[in-house]
From TrEMBL:
UniProt key word NADP: no
Superkingdom classification of source: Bacteria
Residue span of region Disordered: 47-76
Gene Ontology MF term list: metal ion binding; UDP-2,3-diacylglucosamine hydrolase activity
InterPro entries: Calcineurin-like_PHP (IPR004843), LpxH-like (IPR043461), Metallo-depent_PP-like (IPR029052)
CDD domains the record matches: MPP_YbbF-LpxH
The keyword Metal-binding appears for this protein: yes
One of the record's GO cellular component terms: membrane
Name of the protein in question: UDP-2,3-diacylglucosamine diphosphatase
Lineage: Bacteria, Pseudomonadati, Pseudomonadota, Betaproteobacteria, Burkholderiales
Pfam families linked: Metallophos
Keyword field: Cell inner membrane, Cell membrane, Manganese, Membrane, Metal-binding
GO biological process: lipid A biosynthetic process
Species assigned in the record: Cupriavidus cauae
Amino acid sequence: MVSALRSARAHLARAAQRLRGRSDPMLPLAAIPGMPAAFMPPGLDRAPTTAFPADTDRLNHQDRRDPVPASVPSADPPEVERYRAIWLSDIHLGTPGCQADYLLDFLKHNESDTLYLVGDIIDGWQLRRGWYWPQSHNDVVQKLLRKARKGTEVIYVPGNHDEVARQFDGLAFGDVVVREEAVHVTATGRRLWVVHGDLFDGVVQHARWLAYLGDTLYTLILALNRHFNRIRARLGFPYWSLSQYLKHQVKNAVNYISSFEHAMVEEARRRGCDGVVCGHIHKAEIREVDGQLYCNDGDWVESLSALVETMEGELKIVYWTTLRDPAQPVARRMRKSAATV
């Protein structure tokens, strides 16, 4: 009889706990209305210290005992600059020299009504020699496509390293339009001819083997540049282009750049434009050349630069040599990319 009463008491205790939504085995059974004293363990036949006059009060009391943790506040949204237009070129996705981390950080913090991709976005020359495509390069492509889907007008003007895309002139891939060249009108009414610029490079057009040889040597210099900046990053210094510094110390290279600039502005004048926006030579610059506006948006293997037009129509070069988002440490990403090769 005694064992039967104890078994019944245990079953009632568990049932009462489930009804009250509590799994705590130490709940005082005297708190359950109508519980016979015979089923209470010795010493628990007295009323509890805290009375629960109603189920609602018991729930309120439970809320006070076990408060729901406050939700973690979301991180502050990134600071974003807004422009009428942004020009990017010479990204060279598919090569170890591409500074994809810096470009992703730039794209995260800068928006525009129109985005021009001015050639050499993907390096087909390097990809034919050997496949190299880390996750960060895929992230850049996805980021550009996402901008197009969200309303940015994206115009892709191919260059010599991605010249295969020129056969699709006038076609749209999703929300990205391919153009062999374009004309941009600024807020102040200036007409700018937008083209990569390789068609005005005599070496590329008439000595292609020499262009390939130069590209191979340039790749070796960029490899040295990458190791150099890895050390700088560990020491806390911003990005600095050793390869660009060496290139600008060579007199022939300086003369070549000057000839290239004059050829570009002359062609822009012939087309009835007020200036030109190009890439190709990896030297960001805005200046007057022979009475015409010459703009080069630089690159994302050496100068880490973009050309932008403000809402008021001002043109300027933006250098992105320091990451704003610390969640993308360059040294770690570079080590991870190197491990996948």
